[in-house]
């Protein structure tokens, strides 16, 4: 018997990833506004899109890890059982 997470888990992880992205972009937009004082939308677009691309692997991995710890706090890995 193969143990796998249900597909709904990965759908929920996409929402957690979306929350990460929103928090990162809002923080970065406010920081860019404070540091540069520019109203140029191309500056914001370039910076924000580049950050989304660079942090995509982080968001992909850690959204699933965070959701796993929220949904199943008692889940532990036992290497002796995997043999």
Notes on the structure:
The protein has helices at 7-36, 41-71. The protein has one domain (7-82). By secondary structure, the chain is mainly α.
Describe the structure concisely for a colleague.
This protein has 83 residues and is mainly alpha-helical. It is 73% helix and 0% strand.
Task: Draw up the topology in text.
Layout: H1 7-36, H2 41-71
| N- to C-terminal distance | 14 Å
Unreliable parts: none
Biggest sheet overview:
none
- The total of helices stands at 2
> Number of DSSP strands?
0
User: In terms of quaternary structure, what is this?
Assistant: single chain
Q: How large, in whole angstroms, is the Cα Rg?
A: 18 Å
Shape field: elongated
Structural class: mainly alpha
Q: Could you say how many structural domains there are in total?
A: 1
- Summarize the amount of helix as a percent range: over 70%
Instruction: Compute the average pLDDT.
Output: 86
- List the secondary-structure elements in sequence, H or E: HH
Content of β-strand: under 5%
Salient structural properties:
elongated; 83 residues; mainly alpha
